[in-house]
């Protein structure tokens, strides 16, 4: 818990310090990064803590985004719209997940891919409501009761704070009994079953939470981008968020968030130089996988542990005379 | 009344019949050892009793209640616990965390998604008790993958015992152990309280005769004999197929 507190303080400091150094363009980019970080954390939750690799997670993102876009034409209340996004995507995750989690790893991949594509086609086909392939603009305006939020800085702080809140909630889940048990099931299902756990309940719980959070990220994105299109549910986007999770580090919470930052940054940075930026991203991914360290976050942790280890050995050396003294007795 | 009753169960993998009309009875507190050559179907029998694998025919009763159709995770709550032949621990977790996971299965807060598991005082106390009882308090923060093989097998038994079962199924608890570790494990099994019945698959004959009240011999998926250690020791058929002529020191 102390570690969580320290982490949160650091994140808050980060969120509030960035505007001091960033240009308007940078602020916008950082805002998008926070949203994608939430999305990536939601996928990271099932990939890294429940062992479920989904190729259709953008489906939930799209559901959240279209909820704000479509229902937002008639409902203005931001809280209500966000709640609806979470509930609708969570419910759809619950119902579909009840079927999906029964499948083996490979079929899970395929069936989630199909799920995402189904939504993509649906948003495409429901033209009267969604604008079809052209997409639709979002008329709902972000307002938490303190006035309409329209400035880049306003969006920046909202998304930054949302990111921190959901990081905390996910951290709590991961440390909770249900979170620990889910991780245990990922590592050894038969064992957990023999210990008395209903493994399906936990898998479904994780999938539902993850879907609901992805939906929320989509809803925030709709406000931020003021435009939604079927691509938000497409397999390309599902693949991209998976890449974010993998380059950041599977099995951690901040890893996927870090992956999202690097991904979005490189995407923007490189696309100004070359059309072929996905290739560069691919090369980076391959390099990371080959290096075998399991994502950028592990490089950071590795660096940190080296530092700590050095400090420890320092302490051990200073303690040695005492131990020798004991040995003499 | 017997605690566990296995009634004529059969099991096939595609065309390969692995269990054929296997029946077995275990009384409360009994030490029941199952022996038989490799591939006899002992592990499969455990999987069928604990519903990791569905049976083709027959039935399994625990305390007179049919359990063969119940999902595997119900059995732990009915008092049946087991270990696995292959080490099945959570290697990246510490000894303590492994025990937490074993204990939480019966806690009402096992579906809690907000408060940290380690903030629960009851689970911390019970974990301490177990660590002290088994004299491994000094190993509590060691990751399980860094334990010796013998220690891992011990932890395996200890986790299965954490739920306070009425019956415990141990699949080759001494396999892969050094002679010293085997002796230690044998001693530990003998020390388990009589409040728990044991069904043990075991190859080491010293261990078998040290712990067994009854022995069942499984061969090609069939029970060829079930009786007291003496009966089994002196049975001609068993000598023939299992002891390979009976020239062993136990004969
Ligand atoms: N999942 C499975 N699929 C197919 N055959 C299996 C499977 N599990 C075990 N077997 C076969 O069943 C037979 C009995 O295996 P097992 O129960 O592990 O024997 P034991 O534990 O007595 O050594 C073996 O011939 C083994 O190859
Ligand atoms: Mg076996």
Automatic annotation (TrEMBL), chain A:
It comes from the Bacteria. Its main location: membrane. It is a multi-pass membrane protein. The keyword Transmembrane helix applies. Keywords: Cell membrane, Membrane, Transmembrane, Transmembrane helix. InterPro entries: ABC_transp_permease (IPR001851), LivM-like (IPR043428). Pfam families: BPD_transp_2. It is found in: Cell membrane. It comes from Geobacillus jurassicus. The chain crosses the membrane at residues 33-51, 58-76, 82-101, 106-126, 154-174, 201-224, 244-266, 278-300. This is Branched-chain amino acid ABC transporter permease.
Automatic annotation (TrEMBL), chain B:
SUPFAM superfamilies: P-loop containing nucleoside triphosphate hydrolases. Keywords: ATP-binding, Nucleotide-binding, Transport. Residues 4-245 form the ABC transporter domain. GO terms for molecular function: ATP binding. It holds the Pfam family BCA_ABC_TP_C. It comes from the Bacteria. This is ABC transporter ATP-binding protein. It comes from Geobacillus jurassicus.
